[in-house]
Design brief:
heterodimer, A: about 90 residues, mainly alpha, about 10% strand, B: about 180 residues, two-stranded antiparallel sheet
Chain lengths: ~90, ~180
């Protein structure tokens, strides 16, 4: 009975919208949403494309974790798609 | 990936592909780990479906816009845009593209505006969202311009779609309160 009651309430539109808001707010509270609103550097003609090893949606990205390798080789790396894109 | 000039040798692509695989997580569905637009799109979807002729429930759309407003207010005071990691010596850079405040407004408000332009309470709810943001952004000129642009689009669409002048006047008054308030 409890499960049926929970299910009936959880699919009501008020519950759905409240969950969506809380989910988005948790991202705002816990994540860095961006560091630069300057114009974005564009890859030059000599840039080398790097293919992802899997297809799907980008769920998370941590540029700071790749920075030591980029610095060691003196290169710039940019993703072409945002988090949440495919 | 690119070295500083065309004459500098590029490092081994496989090395970077393997490293990228470790720092970028790719999956079959969107998640709320870093993807703020996922929750926003759910709210926009609710609003757009509520505004469809088959459902015709503008108040549910207004509720969804009010929830969106809370998220936009939280974002209005935060740095947005690209996530850029730079080496302090300037010899390396990694960039993950991200939306600016105006991009978020254009995508999220735009869809609801287009479906709800004929319903004054929907236009007014969107204007309330923009008014709340305008009170929080301080003197950020780019964000102010983005808000003004959305206000203008809402007024233009409402003027075209709302048949009753009296209904449109309420929308225009709310818009002018943001522009000159």
């Amino acid at each position: 009975v409890y499960f049926a009651d929970h299910l009936a309430h959880s699919i009501q539109i008020d519950s759905v919208t409240t969950r969506a808001e809380k989910g988005a707010l948790s991202v705002v509270a816990s994540q860095q949403l961006g560091t630069s609103e300057e114009s974005r550097p564009q890859p030059p003609p000599w840039a080398v494309p790097l293919m992802a090893m899997h297809s799907g949606y980008i769920q998370t990205a941590h540029p700071e974790a790749l920075l030591p390798l980029a610095s060691r080789y003196g290169v710039s790396v940019t993703l072409l798609h945002r988090v949440g894109s495919m | 990936m690119w070295p500083p000039s065309a004459t500098d040798p590029a490092p081994d692509a496989q090395t970077f592909s393997s490293a990228l695989d470790g720092v970028i997580k790719i999956g079959f569905e969107r998640t709320l780990q870093q993807d703020i637009t996922f929750g926003m799109r759910q709210l926009v979807d609710v609003a757009c479906k509520a505004l469809s002729p088959a459902v015709n429930d503008p108040y549910t759309a207004v509720q969804a816009i009010d929830h969106l407003s809370v998220i936009f207010c939280a974002m209005a005071i935060r740095p947005l845009g690209d996530d850029v990691a730079r080496d302090p010596k300037g010899v390396g850079m990694v960039l993950v593209p991200g939306r600016r405040f105006g991009d978020y407004l254009a995508v999220m408000c735009g869809m609801v505006r287009r479906y709800g332009a004929s319903e004054p309470i929907v236009s007014q709810a969107l204007l309330r969202l923009l008014s709340s943001c305008a009170g929080l952004i301080g003197d950020d000129p780019a964000r102010r311009t983005a808000i003004d642009k959305q206000v203008a689009l809402i007024v233009q669409d409402a003027e075209r779609e709302i048949a009753q002048h009296e209904d449109f006047f309420a929308v225009r008054a709310a818009a002018e309160a943001i522009r000159y308030g």
